[in-house]
C-alpha cells in the first residue's frame, strides 16, 4: 500500500491504525511461565564462589606496612589491610 500512492496511504492511515489497535490483544501472563526468582538467585554469590574456587589459584600475600598508604592499617600477620577513619 505504501508503494502504490503516498496520498492514498496518508488518507487511509487513520483507518489502518484503528485496525491495528483492534487486532492487538492485551498481553496475558501465561500460567506457570514465571520463575521463582528467590529460588534461583538467593544463593547465587555462594554458587558462583563454589564454582570458581577450584579455578582460581590461591596465592598468599604479605603486605609491607612500610610502603602502605598512611591511611591504611596493616594487620599484625601482614595479610589484611583496613582503612582508617580519614579515608572514609
From TrEMBL:
Pfam families: PRY. InterPro entries: B30.2/SPRY_sf, Butyrophylin_SPRY, ConA-like_dom_sf, PRY. Residues 61-85 form the SPRY-associated domain. This is SPRY-associated domain-containing protein. It comes from Cirrhinus molitorella.
Amino acid at each position: 500500500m505504501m508503494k502504490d500512492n503516498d496520498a492514498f496511504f496518508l488518507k487511509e492511515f487513520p483507518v489502518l491504525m484503528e485496525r491495528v489497535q483492534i487486532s492487538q490483544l492485551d498481553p496475558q501472563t501465561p500460567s506457570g511461565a514465571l520463575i521463582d526468582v528467590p529460588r534461583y538467585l538467593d544463593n547465587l554469590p555462594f554458587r558462583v564462589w563454589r564454582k570458581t574456587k577450584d579455578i582460581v589459584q590461591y596465592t598468599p600475600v604479605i603486605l609491607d606496612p612500610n610502603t602502605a598508604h598512611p591511611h591504611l592499617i596493616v594487620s599484625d600477620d601482614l595479610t589484611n589491610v583496613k582503612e582508617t577513619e580519614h579515608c572514609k
